[in-house]
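Example 102, ligand zinc ion.
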Amino acid sequence: MGVGLQNAKEAKVISMNDTDESKNLCDFCGGELRPGATEIEVRINGELVVIEDLSALICHQCGEAYFTAQVSRQIDDILARRKELTPLRYESVPVFSPSLVG
Ligand SMILES: [Zn+2]
């Protein structure tokens, strides 16, 4: 099921509706957005996928990342074609839960 993907996209992939990037402020905290790069993690059909080197406007206060329509489309392309693309590398990640600290 694609629920996790949709949730991640709602949270992280927000298309800018204005080409004048200097006037954009963070929807969440009103902070100034500055050009930068980020990565996203998406769990899709139970599989965790990381996409790095994404150009974004990043809120300097809360860190929320905003993607242009082009980058958003590239994310969609990567996720749709992830079975045919060769990943840059594989990483194993540590997994925790609150039960570990009581
Ligand atoms: Zn913010």
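Summary: The domain at 7-83 is CATH 3.10.20.860 (Ubiquitin-like (UB roll)).
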